[in-house]
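@channel sequence for tomorrow's demo:
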Amino acid sequence: MTAPAGDEARRPLVLVPRGGAWGDRVAEAARARGLDPVVVPLIVDAPPADTAALDAALDRLVAAAGRHGAAPEGATGPDGRGPDGGGARSEDASRPGGRDPGAPWLVVTSATAVRVVVGRVAGLPAGVHVACVGEATARAARDAGWRVDLVPEDESGAGLVAAFPDTAGHVLFPRSELAAGTVADGLRDRGIDVEDVVAYRTVGTGDEPVRLDRAPDAVLVTSGSVASQVARRMAPLDPRTRIACIGPGTADAARAVGLPVHVVGRSRSAEALLDAVAEALQTGAPEVPEPPRPGRSS
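structure tokens (generated this afternoon):
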């Protein structure tokens, strides 16, 4: 795969690893920071091989929500049914009395998970509490019309587990096929009932090497899947190319596949990552050293 260099060759060239609306938004944000983005989709999302488990889990979530609050008109499950033949809401309304102890929770750790659920549930039931791993995911949830009840200050899977309320009821965690066990296992270790189900797969876009007309100054690495594709399709990297990871977990995944890590975003958002890239390219920051750790979870 060959991608043309941008017209503004003097601007630092930054590879954006996903296409679609996300790629367009990130490319626009990169230009606003004086960078020259080139969108080279390395991964795409695909549905699970069998969606029956996901649909059944969403049906159970809708039914549980109906037992913990009247669902406004309009909500349906993935099969078109409401919790009691009734409907649900998609508007962001206030939740009287705050969180309902024992009510079901929906945990999402990516905007892709939000899109998948939106595509299969016509309006999230009012009785469901929503937890998001970070502000970027929360923004996608709010854009979908969901009320977001929890975003941890530490925008990570471990931070989400630590911030989760002890009074939570059943938790549905629609996840990537490649998701680490941090969230599901962490919540179970706290005695919380978790149903984790594959909502989507992340697959590579091909096998051919990626070659640009000029070496990128930075490659945005937004997941372990992207890191694997960069290592597989862009090696050997130009010594001047900086690997920029969206968070510490992604940085660990990048190192695990043999990539150097030069930049780590301060929060889990593409905008924060681009800010860090622009700063690093301006200052010539060296590779980020791997932090000492007593041990790692898989």
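heads up for whoever presents: DSSP finds nine helices and twelve strands in the chain.
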